[in-house]
Amino acid sequence: MADFVGYAYAVVVFLGGLIGYVKAGSVASLASGAAFGVAAAYGAKLVSTNPKNVTLALAVSVALLLVMGFRFSKSGKFMPAGLVSLLSLVMTIRYGIRLIQ
């Protein structure tokens, strides 16, 4: 079965980078959003093929949780760092549970 939640997460991450570029002209936001979005999508593809193959998807969600969680703690702004941190936390828990089952 396809990992639709994982694919949706990847799209949100990618679109977040794109929106950061459009609103603020941030090439770094575009590059990181694209890189993490593609990595998350590939991780979702691997999970779709084999539900136990969560390593990449888990690594991407943990990395985004740490990076965006740090940014959220510094800025206190929910958008975009808080939202991505929250989504990444949910995905980390989701993939972590799959890893230990």
From TrEMBL:
GO BP field: regulation of heme biosynthetic process
Entry GO CC: mitochondrial membrane
TM region(s), chain numbering: 7-24, 30-47, 54-72, 78-97
Tagged with keyword Transmembrane helix: yes
Subcellular location: Membrane
Signal peptide span: none
Matches recorded under InterPro entries: TMEM14, TMEM14_sf
Entry keyword set: Membrane, Transmembrane, Transmembrane helix
Pfam family, one: Tmemb_14
Family: Belongs to the TMEM14 family.
UniProt protein name: Transmembrane protein 14C-like protein
The organism of origin for this protein: Jimgerdemannia flammicorona
